[in-house]
Amino acid sequence: MRVSSSPEARVAPARIVEVRRSLLKANDLRARELRQRFTTAGVQVVSLVSSPGAGKTALLEVLLTRLRRTHAAAALVGDLATDNDAVRLARSGAPVRQINTGNLCHLEARMVEEGLADWDLSALDVLFLENVGNLVCPSAYDLGEAERWVLLSVTEGEDKPLKYPTIFNTADVAVITKLDLAAAAGCDLARLRTNITEVRPGMAIIEVSARTGAGLERLLQRVLRKVAGRLQPIP
Amino acid sequence: MHELSLAMNLIEAIEEVIEEECAQRGGLRVRAVRLRVGALSGVNADALAFAYECACEGTGLAGTRLTAEATPGPELELLGLEVDP
């Protein structure tokens, strides 16, 4: 009898179990359910992603304040540790809820589902989901939103889209914030726009300033395109 | 950046496969795990392998190898398992 001395030869070759399953499948399925719920309830859901400090909360404050005059708008806000943002947004008078992600760097569909809990979605026209400040991780997690806006401020450098192409490729609109600071920050807006369309040709770009109100009308129109005809003036 | 939570998802997915396979054929011992990691997935394969190693410690998957096939797209998939015959 021939005995092989090679250790490899003694190990029987492995059997392969084929799987082919996305690691994000669980999240994708939950997101699909959420999207269905949002559609059925007739609520337009917009998520906001950006680096920390790009102005998500400041923009939402003014958007919620404006929307509240004519529509039912609400927000779910993700943050690592505090409820500071929720407190700020609640000043607009809109219903706001905080999701503490507990050091997790992004929102997941499960957290949105839990955060919504007992909210009556059919009473809402617009719901904003403010993600954790992070341009990397949120790109992989579908939250069931109808639109994803990626915000970048004029102080962040014109090459930001080139550095974080994935988030620009998963978002629907690029919102350039803090427009009132563009000159002071020496921001070359034309170059910034070129860099955005370089990573995502044809991407919608809206320039705004939460402080001066510039560009807000375009954003509001965009949100309300789908909810027009559901005017609910608030006395 | 969120490789640890992905590694936990991965372990969950592997455990599901093991359970399905065990129900059909009895025992199963995993030698290696094959992944497909797309360039647009936002995931670093080395960081994921490290997170996987840490998350596996003390479980039946400890010591299993993770191999990642790099692809150009957004996919992040558990392709299959190499198991004892």
Explain what you see.
The complex is a heterodimer of chains A (235) and B (85). Chain A is α/β, with parallel strands linked by helices and 235 residues long. Chain A has one domain (23-224): Rossmann fold (3-Layer(aba) Sandwich), CATH 3.40.50. Chain A is 35% helix and 20% strand. Chain A contains ten helices and eight strands. Chain A has helices spanning 7-10, 25-41, 56-68, 84-90, 109-116, 160-163, 165-170, 182-185, 189-199, 216-224, and strands at residues 15-22, 44-50, 73-79, 96-100, 126-130, 147-153, 173-177, 204-207. Chain A has a seven-stranded parallel β-sheet, sandwiched between helices. In chain A, helix 4 (84-90) links the parallel strand 3 and strand 4 (96-100). In chain A, helix 3 (56-68) packs parallel to helix 4 (84-90). The radius of gyration of chain A is 22 Å and the shape is globular. Chain B is α+β, with helices and mostly antiparallel strands. Chain B has one domain: hypothetical protein PF0899 fold. Chain B has a three-stranded mixed β-sheet, with helices on one face. In chain B, helix 2 (45-56) links the parallel strand 1 and strand 2 (65-71). In chain B, helix 1 packs across helix 2 (45-56). The mean pLDDT of chain B is 90. Chain A binds chain B through residues 12-26, 104-106, 134, 136-137, 139-140, 165-166, 169, and chain B through 1-2, 5-6, 9-10, 12-13, 17, 21, 28, 31-32, 40-43, 75-85.
In short:
The complex is a heterodimer of chains A (about 240) and B (about 80). Chain A is of the alpha/beta class.
Low-confidence stretches of chain B: none
Whole-number tally of structural domains of chain B: 1
**How many domains would you count in the coordinates of chain A?**
1
| Structural class estimated from helices and strands of chain B | alpha+beta
How many β-strand runs of chain A?
A: 8
- CATH overall fold name of chain B: hypothetical protein PF0899 fold
Report low-confidence residues of chain A grouped into runs of 5 or more. Answer: 231-235
Number of discrete helical segments of chain A: 10
Decide which structural class fits the backbone of chain A: alpha/beta
**How is the main sheet of chain B built?**
3 strands, mixed
- Proportion of residues in helical segments of chain A: 25-40%
Q: Quote the beta fraction of chain B.
A: 25-35%
**CATH architecture descriptor text of chain A:** 3-Layer(aba) Sandwich
